[in-house]
Amino acid sequence: MVVYAPDRDLKDTAAGTASIQPATKVILAGHSHLTALTVNHVKNPPALRALRQHGNLHVLEGTWPRDPAYWRALADHAAGAHVVIVWGGNEHNVSFFFQAAFAFDFLSNKVKRLVPSFQIVSQSRIRRRFNEIDLFELDRVLPILNARMPASVTLVGTPPPKKDTEALRKLLEREPYFCDWAAQLGQSVAEIKITEPHIRLKMWFLLQDMIAEISERYGARFIPVPSELQDEDGYLLEQYWHPDVTHANAAYGAIVLRKVLEQVAR
Amino acid sequence: MKKGASHPYLTLPDTAFWSRSVARSYDARALVDPAAPLLRADDKIMSAGSCFAANIIPFFESAGFPYVRTEFVDEADRYGYHLYSAAYGNIYTARQLRQLLERLAGSFRPIEDRWRIGEAVIDPFRPGLPDPAGSDEEFDLILDSHHARFREAIRRASLFIFTLGLTEAWVSKADGAVFPACPGTIAGAFDPERHAFVNFRSSDIRDDLLESMQLLKRFNPAIRMMATVSPVPLVATASGAHVQRATAYSKAALRVACEEAAQYWPDLVYFPAYEIVTGPHSAGFFEADLRQVSPAGVQAVMDVLFHHSETPASTADDRARREQMRRAGELSKALSERECEEMAADRAPEPPLEGEDRPAKPDGAG
After folding, report:
1. Bridging pattern class, strands B159-164 and B45-49
2. Per-residue pLDDT reduced to its tens digit, A162-194
């Protein structure tokens, strides 16, 4: 059973966040998980929008999917600012949300469970796939940002996976577009195999490690997902689910934003 | 012929005479005289061998014979691991096959079983496998998984097709473990103190084939084996001989070994791919490098094979399953893209942060 955060809770967390006033300009940017932190609008060309009447908090809005023009615009605004990026976060879902050609598992130092009957693949194989999807681009964007002398660059951890497979299936069934798409490919949303939760969790942990490693390589700060948003295993707590398969809600975003501002802007 | 004379040749069929079956009226299909269909209607095929073995796999699938696959590798790999039933890559010699099967049975464990190169732990017996392990623990897990899937493939298959490619190999001096490629060529480093060249004799190959057959039957008593000799010449020889002469020795030894092994074991049949491609009527069966078999050559081989085979019983389920798996990958990507597109639209149902500026509605009402 998925319980979504009521508006009252969202306002409470938002109020807590609003009390932090950054002294230096803060720019939030990134891919779709950024929308948990702030409402985003399609802007072409990309443009900064102030998030508060008073203060230095901004979001860089642009077109979806993000394109080179978006990252160039971020670089153009970066001088002297604290740049906060929510990069990717769906790499593990892009390739592996559904159990594709074979059931696999891999060694993880975060999740001990391993299904020996599944094909065991190397962690480097998963890493290569994540890099191919979009992490290679982060490797290009960060040095460009650094060259513009920002006050700091911060990468923010992305939402953990959602554990309850059947709840996810129900969410899928609410998406007519996807159901039609699946049907055209001969798939039934009701029956399609979703990758085991513990494997999705492993991939997410690996993704966080990779983003942290890239951050470190370029002298950027990495802020992991606050543990209060996760259950004891690391899955996203259900009260922070956005009603789709991959994203977190604004309550999640408010807590993450508070953590970010505490570290970046005080 | 002398009147009243009699001798054995008088009763032989045309195929016993070069003039009647090669010089005239040549039909490659006559090279096979199977006691039973080469491929049976319900066969599930597993194969191994040299590069030529990889070339013929798509033909089985397009003809409708299920090709057993239990281990998956990304198709981007350079060395064809993704082509075979359990990602074992090319197996060039009968000794290598025998040792692999002995490893599956637990009766052989190579002493030089891994190469540590930087942060990677490389499998010397799958040296070109993409994305190597990053630790001994991970290496052991992946190897155990590979062996389990190899055994599973054998259990599922009804026919194991082995294409013998080489007599020459590089082995570990410690225990004779055969490497698929000379250390240092694809991965690792060649060490003359540890690595040695061998050129197997036909009797070695025959015995290795027969032992391999026994090992296969240990995992699957009903499995049959078809042996072929790759018509592809050696790319290089370490024997000291001219490469053409080395090729002639290699193919002759392999051919003898197959013949003798097939005579010994009824469940092992020889299929004359080598003769079809290299025979007197094989013009156009090689590419310009005079080494790679042309599509016409491969087609000629498969035409003969399928001529002597039953029509596959049913493949709809297998094909549908594979297609469904492929589509699952597409759906994962589609799902993420779709959700990201949806996130691109303003998420109006959720309240903004306190003090957050809401843009005016498009119609200007807000």
Report:
1. parallel
2. 999 999 999 888 877 667 777 776 778 888 888
Determine whether the interchain pair B335/A15 forms a contact, defined as Cβ–Cβ distance below 8 Å.
no
Contact B27, B285 (CB under 8 A): no
Residues of chain A with C-beta less than 8 angstroms from the C-beta of B344: 32, 40, 42, 64
**A4 near A243, Cβ under 8 Å?**
yes
Burial class (CB in 10 A: 0-12, 13-18, 19+), B91: buried
Asked if B39 and B310 count as a contact pair (C-beta separation under 8 A), the reply is yes
Task: Specify the DSSP class assigned to residue A34.
Answer: G
Residue A221: its H or E element: strand A221-223
- Tell me whether residue B1 is exposed, middle or buried, using C-beta atoms within 10 angstroms of its C-beta: 0 to 12, 13 to 18, 19 or more: exposed
Closest chain A residue to B328, measured at CA: A100
Enumerate helices (H) and strands (E) in chain B, giving the number of each.
Answer: 9, 9
CATH 3.40.50.1110 fits A7-97+127-162+204-264, yes or no: yes
What's the Cα-to-Cα distance from B337 to each of A14, A34, A98, B334, rounded to whole Å?
29, 15, 14, 5
- Listed by start position, the domains of chain B span 28-311, 316-342
Angle between helices B295-307 and B51-63 (to 10 degrees): 60
B158 CB burial (10 A radius; 0-12, 13-18, 19+)? middle
The minimal CB distance from B357 to the residues A10, A51, A246 is found for: A51
pLDDT in tens, A38-93: 877 888 889 998 887 657 899 999 998 899 999 999 999 999 999 999 999 998 88
Domain parsing of chain A, residue ranges:
7-97+127-162+204-264
- Specify the CATH class of B28-311 in words: alpha beta
